[in-house]
């Protein structure tokens, strides 16, 4: 096992305004771009060659990661001129793979934080003689997901759309967004057009009699597609609940990067992060939140379960709860923003202008 494809081309529209200037996989989680955690875990599992399938803001990736040598990897980048979907993106990078037709190729979605045992997934794929193997996870409420039932041996029996009634919930197993393809199978995906592996490739292979195998791994798993889940994922990395060798410091209640400045009586708890150049004023309380590079928090501010964009400024005694503040935004003193409110990049909110919760 030496190769992997990382699907990092999505626009991340559910994460806006965080993704206005930054592609979703490059938004910092626990002090580094989220993609760093995925690459580090892949390297720890024995991967040494990764092809990134890029599209949205594709120019951001290579200047940051370069050839991957600092991570012990060989990285390559392939940019889609037009979005090709998950299957189309996999097929589009096929020419960059070194594997022989019968060797395994890992595929990861660029927005999943997981404790998956990557080696175990590949080993099970090989033992089963599968054409494709899928990481499956169990969820308490599967109604928001497509279902993937398997037989007693782990062979995938069907791919079912999101259930609409209780009777349609035949399993709690869902597609967790990591796969192993036998290399030759990738070449069967149509080239040059959008293809969804979830809706077209996998059901088509199953119908044609291919062997699709599912490995249920119930370790940590989180889809980082929304601001609330992204903030939670960052905090879980800092707290050590989600595994990553790339966290730039000890796991614990807080992660303060070396160039950040935090007042002596300020408190950061719940896996909070103060990014490079961030400033936290006297008496501020930060809980379960991420302050991106250069964010400034004035004295007395109270911030909980929120994400503060790069260079944003939060005024004195302002309260943020479940808020997302875009890059460069300025929130004047004495405001109160709650309930999932999002403030766009470079917006200005005057002192004392907002004193309500959108969910009230």
UniProtKB/TrEMBL annotation:
Residues 252-334 form the Mannose-1-phosphate guanyltransferase C-terminal domain. InterPro entries: GMPPB_C, Mannose-1P_guanyltransferase, NTP_transferase_dom, Nucleotide-diphossugar_trans. CDD domains: NTP_transferase. Signal peptide: none annotated. Residues 4-236 form the Nucleotidyl transferase domain. It comes from the Bacteria. Belongs to the transferase hexapeptide repeat family. This is NDP-sugar synthase. It comes from Streptomyces reniochalinae.
């Amino acid at each position: 096992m030496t190769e992997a494809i990382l699907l990092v081309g999505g626009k991340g529209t559910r994460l806006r305004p965080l993704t206005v200037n930054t592609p979703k996989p490059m938004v910092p989680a626990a002090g580094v771009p989220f993609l760093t955690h995925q690459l580090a875990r892949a390297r720890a599992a024995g991967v040494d060659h990764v092809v990134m399938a890029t599209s949205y803001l594709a120019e951001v990736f290579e200047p940051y990661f370069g050839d991957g040598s600092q991570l012990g990897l060989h990285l390559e980048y392939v940019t889609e001129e037009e979005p090709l979907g998950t299957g189309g993106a996999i097929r589009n990078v096929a020419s960059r793979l070194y594997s022989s037709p019968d060797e395994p190729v890992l595929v990861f979605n660029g927005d999943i934080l997981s404790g998956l045992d990557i080696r175990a997934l590949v080993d099970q794929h090989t033992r089963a003689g599968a054409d494709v193997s899928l990481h499956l996870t169990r969820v308490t409420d599967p109604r928001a997901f497509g279902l993937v039932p398997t037989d007693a041996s782990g062979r995938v029996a069907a791919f079912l759309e999101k259930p609409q009634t209780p009777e349609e919930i035949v399993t709690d197993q869902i597609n967790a967004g990591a796969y192993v393809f036998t290399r030759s199978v990738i070449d069967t995906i149509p080239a040059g057009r959008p293809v969804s592996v979830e809706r077209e490739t996998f059901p088509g292979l199953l119908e044609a009699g291919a062997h699709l195998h599912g490995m249920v791994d119930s370790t940590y798993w989180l889809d980082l597609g929304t601001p609330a889940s992204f903030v939670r994922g960052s905090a879980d990395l800092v707290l050590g609940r989600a595994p990553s060798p790339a966290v730039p410091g000890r796991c614990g209640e807080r992660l303060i990067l070396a160039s950040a400045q935090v007042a002596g009586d300020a408190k950061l708890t719940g896996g909070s992060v103060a990014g490079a150049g961030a400033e936290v004023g006297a008496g501020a309380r930060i809980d379960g939140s991420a302050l991106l590079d250069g964010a400034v928090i004035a004295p007395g501010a109270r911030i909980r379960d929120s994400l503060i964009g790069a260079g944003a400024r939060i005024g004195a005694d302002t309260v943020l709860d479940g808020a997302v503040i875009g890059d460069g935004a300025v929130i004047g003193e004495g405001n109160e923003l709650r309930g999932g409110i999002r403030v766009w990049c470079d917006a200005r909110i005057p002192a004392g202008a907002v004193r309500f919760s959108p969910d009230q």
